[in-house]
Structure formats: C-alpha cells, structure tokens
Amino acid sequence: MTETVLVTGGTGYVGGWAIVALLGRGYDVRTTVRAASKEQSVREAMGERVGFAIADLMKDDGWDAAMAGVDYVLHVASPLGDQSAKDPDALIVPARDGALRVLRAATRAGVKRVVMTSAANAASPESYTAEGVTDETLWTVDSSSLPAYRRSKTLAEKAVWDFMAGYDGPTELTTVLPGAVFGPILTAHNVGTTQIIQRMLMGKMPGTPKIGLEVVDVRDLVELHLRAMVAPEAAGQRFLGTGEFVWMREIAAALKDALGPQAAKVPTRQLPNFMVRLAAITDPSLRAITISLGRRNRHTTAKAERVLGWKARPAAQTVVECAESLIAHGVVPEVAS
Asked: Which uninterrupted H or E stretch holds 7?
C-alpha cells in the first residue's frame, strides 16, 4: 500500500518543494491550507495528485480530519503572526501553539513519525559575539534580549519535545534545524526566503551588511526531511540542516561572477556596521538583523552526514540557481544582452 504523508503549509516555499519530492517518490500527499480558496494555487504548481485538508494552525478545527489515514507528517508551516508587533508573543504564541496542535493531532491519529522544521537559531549561543561551531546538543537559552522570531522557533521546538517527554505511544518525533533557505522557486507567486536574492538582483540594497549566512538549498533541506522521516535511527533526534557559511558580500560576488549583466544591480560594497544600525532606526526590516552584524558562530551538520548520509551542495551553486530561477519566472526582470 502507498504511504500517505501530510505536509503542513503546502502553499509555502519549503512545503511546496516537499510536496514535489514526495510525489516524485510515489507517496500519496495531502497538504493543509487555511481555506479552500488556497487549493487552486497549489494544484497549479503541483498537479491534481495532491489531496487537501482545511486546517489552520491557530485553530483546533480540522486537524483530526487532516490526520486520518496519514503515515507521516512533515510539519513545515509556521504561522508568521504579526512580525511588526512590539509584543514578542505575537510571534511566539502562534508558533508554539501551532506546533503543539499538529503534534497532538498526530499522536491521536497514531501516525508513525512527525518531522518538524525548527531553525538553526534554536541551537545557537545566547551571545551574538560568540565564535566557534555548535551542534544539536546546544539549546538556545531563551532571553527577552533575543529577536522574537528566534525565540518563537526555540520555544516552539522545546514545547514539542516537552510534549513527547510525557507521551507514551507509537508516534515518533524528529526535528530539522535549517539555516538560510535559498534555491530555485516553483512559482512566481511564492518566492519565500529568496526575497533576499531578489532584492540584491533588483538593486534594492545600497550595499551588503556584514552578515554571514549558512546557506542551505531548499532541495537539500527537503531531502534531509525525507531521510529523517523514514530512517529508524532518526527517531527522537534533532538534525542541523545548515549549509556553507558565507558572508553576504561573497553571495554578491558569486552572483556577479556567474550572471554577468543580469547581476549588474547587485551591490558590491560592504556597508559599515554603524550605517546599518543607523538605517535600522527608521527601517523596521533592518532591526532584526543588526544583532547579527559580524557574527561568526557556525553550526556543524556532521550528525546529519553521519546518521543520514546527507550533504548540502555549495552555497554559490545554490544562490546562483536561485537567481536564475527568479529571472526565469519573471520575478526579477531579465536584462537584455
């Protein structure tokens, strides 16, 4: 019998690629959408083989029906909440409660395993000035001084592991902690986290801040989820799914080298930290990144490589193929040669 996988958030960037990979391997796939009106956009990208369930991470309704007959769950979605709100609970509560809602429904249904997408910043030193390399044994210490998004990912993951500590049943849990997710897009309607590359290509950044990213290709991240879903030894484990550490100026250089005229607007100068901090006073989108300026702490994926045989492709390849995809889909205007 064909196994069924429920993917939460099929309209999302990572969720969409997860559906593509699962269908390619012969699984029956069902995905959750908040409203029936969202189904068409998924069908246009994925075809008619995808099943749907109406379920909202902010509500209890629909989750038991969504889990009926499901063998595995990839909990990729996370409610964004109000990222402009001053109250951090606007992000923390939806992420934590949504994750618990999914896990409780999965355990009631007796699914084999839930693989939840967390974030590498849930396994990072509290100090943003820390150097060195960390692994999955480290848990981020929650602090009001941390950005609300980082706190939301940490507290949501802790909540599901705390739930499993008191659970005595057949369902298993695994979490995957990615870095900065780039790579090709599936549709022009959902660019996801590739907006950073989009902004660089369109010249919407005056320069590159001194920020380092651990770039992981969305296709590699999905592969890690699928391996974690079925490998017996992955049960009850956390897996970092970060990629190569690169500074944003190195991303800009890779785009310039590979794309030529198509990358004419990509900024080449690195912005001094004080300029970024000054700009953040009036630009809310910059406030969350100022704490990361100059940070060099990295994560190791040795566990995923050893246990699951996983390996991320080079960062330059990922960002270049991301840019080429954005151009091909018309998200970034093509430059006439």
From this structure: strand 4-8
SS3 321: helix
- 141 contacts: CB under 8 Å, gap ≥ 6: 126
Residue 314: burial class (beta carbons within 10 Å; 0-12, 13-18, 19+):
middle
Residue 69 lies in a domain: yes
Helices 39-46, 13-24: inter-axial angle, 10-degree rounding: 50
Whole-prediction pTM: 0.93
Report the C-alpha gap between 224 and 117 in whole angstroms. Answer: 11
Q: Which residue has the tokens 């910043």?
A: 121
Pairing of strands 72-75, 4-8: parallel
End-to-end Cα distance, the chain: 52
Summarised one tens digit per residue, pLDDT across range 236-277 is: 999 999 999 999 999 999 999 999 999 999 998 888 878 877
Residue 325 inside a domain? The answer is: no
Using N-to-C axis directions, what is the helix angle for 148-165 and 89-109, rounded to 10°?
A: 30
Number of structural domains in the chain: 1
Q: Which residues contact 121 (CB under 8 A, 6 or more apart)?
A: 140, 150, 153, 154
Q: Is the pLDDT of residue 283 over 80?
A: no
The SS3 of residue 115 is strand
| Structural domain contains residue 164 | yes
Q: How many whole angstroms separate alpha carbon 302 and alpha carbon 246?
A: 18
Residue 73 lies in a domain: yes
Residue numbers of the domain that contains 97: 4-181+216-243+298-312
Q: What is the CATH number of the domain that holds 14?
A: 3.40.50.720
Give yes or no for a contact between 86 and 120, defined as CB atoms under 8 angstroms apart.
Answer: no
Q: Are 122 and 150 in contact (CB under 8 A)?
A: yes
Q: Are 19 and 30 in contact (CB under 8 A)?
A: no
